Amino acid sequence: MLKIEDMHVYYGAIHAVKGVSFEVGEGEIVALIGANGAGKSTILKTVSGLMHPRSGSIHFCDQDITHMEAYKLLRTGLAHVPEGRRIFQQMTVQENLEMGAYIKKDVSQKDLETVFTYFPRLKERRKQIAGTLSGGEQQMLAMSRALMIHPKLLMLDEPSMGLAPILVDQIFDIIKELHKAGTTILLVEQNARKALQIADRAYVLETGSITLSGTGAELASSDAVKKAYLGG
Length: 232
Known about the structure:
The protein is of the alpha/beta class and 232 residues long. 37% of the residues lie in helices and 26% in strands. It is globular.
């Protein structure tokens, strides 16, 4: 579904992503793990059109999207939940969800109810101002807003960041449910243990390059990964 080949991305003179190549197959959960500054978020921003690579290519559903604008990419079925949630703080929960579906002519009640099946807490708070939600609820809102276009590929950037352990478990349970329902997922996550537990395949990034790859189980049992990311 997604194929990235020899992608190089720069911030000015800083070479942030160095010749990265990887694939995400339809129906998979693929995880990118690594330390802060490894280039994980930059990769997601580049795939979703918020940044553009200096060289290399990105193909999504057999279409070259390397230099496609972000707003056009939404129409291809690619959705990005950014790090830090980026919800519309002054809008209600429902207005945030409607903004997520702005590329559609109208938002049906069915669209909302589908999202609420995954996030029943948001249904209870649909008229509440989004900025007054808890951190966990805001993360749920950011994810549900992206689901309003029924994406083929959902890219999640650090969905567990800043959440209490019980909420981290809830978020990962929801990711597994979305996957079971047929959504392909590209997951960037610092909680390597949780990410590898649910990933079909995973890649380890260090200073802009992929240094290891394999199934989630293979990487979880790797001595190098245990030492660097799992505290083992």
